[in-house]
Amino acid sequence: MNLAFVESPVQLLNVLEWAHAQHGAPLAGVPSQSAGPAGSARSGGVDLTVVVLSPTDPMSRGQLRRMAELARDEGYTVRWQEARGRAGAPLKTVRELAPLLHRAERIVIGDPFSRYVQLLLTLVGSRDLTVVDDGTATMEFVAQLARGEKLVRWHRRGRRGPRELVLAPVTFLARRRLTPSRSRDVEVFTSMPVEPPQGITVTPNLFGWTRSRFGPPKITRGADLVGTSLVETGVVDPDQYVEAVTALARTHGATRYFAHRRESSEKLHRLAVETGLEIVRPDLPLELIARRGPIGATVLSFPSTVVHTLPLALVGTGIRVAVCDIAPEWLRDSASPRAQGFLAGVTGTAQDVQRLPAPA
Question: Which residues contact 273 (CB under 8 A, 6 or more apart)?
Fold first, then answer.
């Protein structure tokens, strides 16, 4: 049995892409089995159970509900786990998932930086592992693994507080689980440009499932703008961000702004008032929204996952993807010293996109 743990809509999308790429298209319309601790569905030769470690924010939960429906439509089992927000929820979750962990032959995860996933990895022994994309963080994960560094998200400054000190043994053991050995195969399924250390298998994510299930899209005139959570993660100054969005929309004739699921309501309200853009809160990951359409002939983005994924999802449609660089003066004083270099790398390694200078 393949057992996947996902915490975001994009992770679940990429688990479906992994199953499609590894084993061929599942049998659409196969009735899904009930999501219980003992059952898993088999579809198209894939024995896959997906466990959703549900987040607490409403937008992520809504998109995950929709993605779970798509996964069930493909014939896979989806188990929704209320893993947060209640006293004792993590320990209860680990206890309930133990039988599945013991039976799984391969574990599929989307976020190796997640403390929750790291805790679960300490229980999987020598099981084979697959890491699917949860965005550009995959690039940093593979680079840190190759350099033998501890796993730290790129936008964090790396300060070790009491919580990090307590969880340090968990992170250390999880990192060992993510390192290939004679008894454990480690695969990275990704649409990102990575240079893996020796022993890790890289399988390209070409978004074959997305293209086979959605589209071709209806294309509208003008441009659409893709939002980012760089303000919410403390990387970019909010005033600078609003000014940049305003300039991009004016220059390229953008009329809609597709919000990132982590963007705050306050910031989105400000953008609507100051830019006149229509704020769209997608109910699915943007790759599916764009493939379904309607979508602008040009899609504008700041450095983010979509500058790598949208060209793959929209291949052959004629839609242009353009990425705007982040100017150094936009960064907040609290931003990680690695932020500028990482964001430049996200932009510089993107294929089939047009690069735009930061608005003056």
Answer: none
